[in-house]
Amino acid sequence: MMERIEGYQVFAELKNGPVTTVFKAVDARYNQVVLIKLLRPEAAAQEHWRTQFLQESRISAKIAHPNLRRTLHAGALDGQPYIVLEYIEGPTLHELTKQHKRLPLDLCIYLAKELAAAIGAVHQNKVLHRDIKPQNIFLAMNGTVKLGDLGSAHELADNNPLTIGTPAYMSPEYILGQEVGPASDLFSLGAVLYEMLTGEVAFVNRTLAATLLHVVNWDPVPIAKLRPETPPELIVTCQKLLAKNPAQRYRSAAAVSDDLGFLEKKYGLTTNRNHLAYFLESPDTYFQVVLQSNAILSPATGAPAPSPRRIPTLSWGVAAIMSASMFLAGVLFIKGLKEYYFDDRNAARSAKTAMALPGSSAAETGYLDLRVIPWGTVFLNGDSTGTTPLPAAVPLPTGRNEVKIRHPRWGERVREVGITPGDTARLTIDLTQP
Question: Catalytic residues, which ones?
Answer without folding.
Answer: 131
